[in-house]
């Protein structure tokens, strides 16, 4: 039994450690160095001064506010298949379908609403979309409004959002 | 009672009150800014009045307004001792506040042969006053925690009680050492003693004459103010907010302010007892009075240099990062503050020149020196407050049994040993 017992020696048990005060002095040296550096020049602090300074590290995979992509002729790429609305875990996508007249596809959304107050920004709608019509690559991370209505995005508003990184045209319905 | 004595008494009382109360927002601001700067953050710096941020100091006043306007919530489960529950925070606050009143801010003024103390309470037994009044502060904590009828609050109160028996003996012993060394219980006489030298050149400050007692005093006062590393009466991780769990709005603010006043008082006591109080090392009031023109001349030379450094520091730091397009009024604020600083400096210079080379009025000279000593005292006190804050963000907390162990196994024997040695030396020197 005793062979399983492993005695680990204390890291240090010197008089210096028992006195506490030298260790406290060492600690003060560290904190004071930081304090002095930052009091001397506050702008060395790497804090993002947010409203004036915008983040520069938003990656292509960042899930920002949604947008609907376009075709080459400027119409929406969405075919109103309801895949995104079905995949949505918080049921915040509301689509009404309508027949498409120009012969490119069979259907188009008559109305397309995303309630961003309900949305949890999980990105399942983007995964589910078969024709690359909905994306979350706008890079918009801050969404503000004065009333609840401002947060319910309609089709026109979603189409007006610009992609922050890649092409404007849908890959599947270009 | 002459007019001068009444005026000095009123002015020193107002000064004491202002020093105790106005330092609260400054200390809260200092605490938050220094904490953030130590942790490489920015801290609160946005709140402003007409674009004037004063480095974030305005935030403290916004906090005061918030606490005053908050709903006064009264826990309905407290049936008995309501009045004591409400009174408890006041006890803590008032005790810390009154203890501050015995501190001298400047040397005794002599007007028409009458000695007038620049002390909010003109008493010559300041040490006793401080020890007795500041010990009452913990009663507020114990009452508040006990009458909350809340387990966390009761535990916090019990811990506060355990703290008292840990540090009070060591504090008393170290102060007795100082009383023996200085041969007085008057704070002002203590400062007088410290303006001398020993071995010819070392200033007779307590920290050099009684290093061991000084360290014990500082540790005990850290415990008395409930500051880190001795914040045992409250602990977010184990007993929520401790004794003040049930206290809201202004009742909480009372405890909060009491803590900062206590810290301020502790700094003042430390500065007065072991760092020479309101005096510069080697220079006592008599020397200053006799060589007033030299003193005025050196101040006239030093003041612009200090102000110049301050303005340069402000220009460097009161601006936004160079990558930002708008500066949000920082330049304007810097300009206005610089103008204010320069005009104040110029008026002080003019007054000093007038006093030193034109007026030659001994009364005006002694008043100027008293003002100078008040400034020295406040600077020293603020430096020690900053030390308190620095310690808080440097070392982790003690467990409350560890505090007791520290107090009884280490500080008490060391204090007794120091007292013994001090007594032998004092008797040896005086005989």
Give the overall average pLDDT of chain B. 86
**Major pleated sheet of chain A:** 3 strands, antiparallel
Q: N- to C-terminal separation of chain B?
A: 41 Å
> Can you list the strand order of the major beta sheet of chain A?
2-3-5
Global Rg of chain A: 28 Å
What's the gyration radius of chain B in Å?
23 Å
What portion of residues of chain A is helical? 10-25%
Overall average pLDDT of chain A: 87
The biggest sheet of chain B amounts to:
2 strands, antiparallel
- Write the H/E string of chain B, N to C: HHHEEHHHEEHHHHHHHHH
Decide which structural class fits the backbone of chain B: mainly alpha
What structural class is derived from the secondary structure elements of chain A? alpha+beta
SSE arrangement of chain A, N to C: HHEHEEHEEH
Proportion of residues in β-strands of chain A: 5-15%
Q: What is the first-to-last residue Cα distance of chain A? A: 74 Å
Order of strands across the biggest sheet of chain B?
1-2
The CATH topology label of the largest domain in chain A is Alpha-Beta Plaits
Number of domains of chain B: 1
Please provide a written account of the structure.
- The complex is a heterodimer of chains A (174) and B (431).
- Chain A is α+β, with helices and mostly antiparallel strands.
- Chain A has two domains: 9-47, no CATH class; 67-160, 2-Layer Sandwich (Alpha-Beta Plaits).
- Chain A has helices spanning 15-18, 21-40, 83-87, 124-128, 155-160; strands at 67-68, 93-99, 107-115, 134-135, 152-153.
- In chain A, the strands form two sheets. In chain A, strands 2-3-5 form a three-stranded antiparallel β-sheet. A two-stranded antiparallel sheet of chain A has the order 1-4.
- In chain A, strand 2 and strand 3 form a beta hairpin.
- The N and C termini of chain A lie far apart (74 Å).
- In chain A, 20% of the residues are buried.
- Chain B is mainly α.
- Chain B has one domain (3-282, 361-430).
- Chain B contains 15 helices and four strands.
- In chain B, the strands form two sheets. Chain B has a two-stranded antiparallel sheet. Chain B has a two-stranded antiparallel sheet with strand order 3-4.
- In chain B, helix 3 (82-100) packs parallel to helix 10, helix 5 packs antiparallel against helix 8 (211-224) and helix 10 crosses helix 14.
- The mean pLDDT of chain B is 86.
- Chains A and B meet through helix 2 of A and helix 1 of B.
């Amino acid at each position: 039994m005793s062979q399983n017992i492993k005695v680990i020696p204390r890291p240090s048990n010197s008089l210096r450690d028992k006195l506490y005060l030298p260790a406290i002095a060492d600690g003060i040296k560290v904190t004071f160095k930081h304090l002095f550096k930052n009091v001397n020049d506050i702008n060395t602090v790497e804090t993002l001064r947010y409203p004036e300074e915008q983040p520069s590290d938003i990656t292509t995979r960042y899930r920002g506010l949604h947008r609907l992509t376009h075709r080459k002729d400027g119409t929406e790429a969405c075919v109103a298949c309801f895949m995104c609305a079905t995949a949505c875990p918080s049921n915040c996508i509301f689509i009404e379908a309508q027949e498409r007249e120009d012969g490119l596809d069979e259907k188009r959304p008559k109305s397309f609403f995303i309630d961003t107050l309900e949305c949890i920004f999980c990105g399942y709608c983007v995964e589910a979309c078969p024709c690359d019509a909905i994306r979350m690559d706008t890079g918009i991370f801050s969404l503000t409004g004065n009333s609840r209505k401002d947060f319910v995005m309609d089709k026109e508003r979603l189409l007006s959002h610009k992609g922050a990184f890649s092409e404007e045209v849908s890959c599947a319905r270009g | 009672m002459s007019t001068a004595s009444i005026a000095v008494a009123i002015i020193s009382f107002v000064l004491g009150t202002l020093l105790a109360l106005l330092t609260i927002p400054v200390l809260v601001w200092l605490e938050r800014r220094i904490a953030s700067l130590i942790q490489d953050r920015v801290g609160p710096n946005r709140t402003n009045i007409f674009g004037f941020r004063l480095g974030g100091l305005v935030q403290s006043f916004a906090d005061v307004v918030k606490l005053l306007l908050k709903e006064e919530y009264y826990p309905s489960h407290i049936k008995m001792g309501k009045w004591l529950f409400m009174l408890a925070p006041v006890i803590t606050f008032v005790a810390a506040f009154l203890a501050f009143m015995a501190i001298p801010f400047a040397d005794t003024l002599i007007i028409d042969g009458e000695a007038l103390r620049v002390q909010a309470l003109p008493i010559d037994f300041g040490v006793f006053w401080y020890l007795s009044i500041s010990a009452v502060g913990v009663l507020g904590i114990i009452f508040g925690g006990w009458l909350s009828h809340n387990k966390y609050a009761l535990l916090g109160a019990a811990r506060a009680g355990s703290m008292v028996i840990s540090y009070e003996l060591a504090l008393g012993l170290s102060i007795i050492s100082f009383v023996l060394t200085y041969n007085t219980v008057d704070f002002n006489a203590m400062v007088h003693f410290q303006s001398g030298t020993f071995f010819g050149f070392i200033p007779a400050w307590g920290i050099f004459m009684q290093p061991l007692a000084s360290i014990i005093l500082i540790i005990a006062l850290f415990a008395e103010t409930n500051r880190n590393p001795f914040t045992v009466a409250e602990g977010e991780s184990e007993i929520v907010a401790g004794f003040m769990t049930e206290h809201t709005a202004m009742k909480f603010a009372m405890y909060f302010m009491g803590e900062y006043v206590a810290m301020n008082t502790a700094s003042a006591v430390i500065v007065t007892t072991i760092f020479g109080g309101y005096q510069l090392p080697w220079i006592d009031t008599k020397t200053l009075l006799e060589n007033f023109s030299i003193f005025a001349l050196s101040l006239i030379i030093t003041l612009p240099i200090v102000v110049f450094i301050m303005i340069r520091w402000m220009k460097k730091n009161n601006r936004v990062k160079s990558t930002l397009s708008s500066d949000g009024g920082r330049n304007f604020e810097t300009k206005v503050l610089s103008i204010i600083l320069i005009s104040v400096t110029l008026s002080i210079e003019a007054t000093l020149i007038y006093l030193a080379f034109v007026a030659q009025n001994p009364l005006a000279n002694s008043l100027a020196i008293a003002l100078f000593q008040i400034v020295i005292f406040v600077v020293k006190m603020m430096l020690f407050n900053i030390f308190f804050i620095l310690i808080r963000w440097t070392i982790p907390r003690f467990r409350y049994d560890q505090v007791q162990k520290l107090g009884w196994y280490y500080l008490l024997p060391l204090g007794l040993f120091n007292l013994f040695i001090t007594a032998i030396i004092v008797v040896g020197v005086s005989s």
